[in-house]
TrEMBL record:
<protein>
    <recommendedName>
        <fullName>DUF2188 domain-containing protein</fullName>
    </recommendedName>
</protein>
Length: 62
């Protein structure tokens, strides 16, 4: 069940070490990476965005 009141932002940021997936979920930040290519980082970004938008809890909270 999704919660429409939650604020979710997930982005890809790149630097000299690689591509990072950063998110903010109601003021709770997180990061995954680095990934070698931007395509992989975009896939991870989409999955994380879906996880945060559609699930009340993420796997680390179970």
């Amino acid at each position: 069940m999704s919660n429409d009141n939650q604020k979710v932002q997930v982005v890809v940021q790149s630097d000299d070490k690689g591509h990072w997936v950063l998110w903010d979920h109601d003021g709770n930040p997180g990061v995954l990476g680095p990934y070698e290519d931007v395509a992989m980082a975009e896939h991870v970004r989409a999955a994380k965005e879906r996880e945060l938008a559609e699930n009340e809890q993420n796997i680390s909270e179970l």
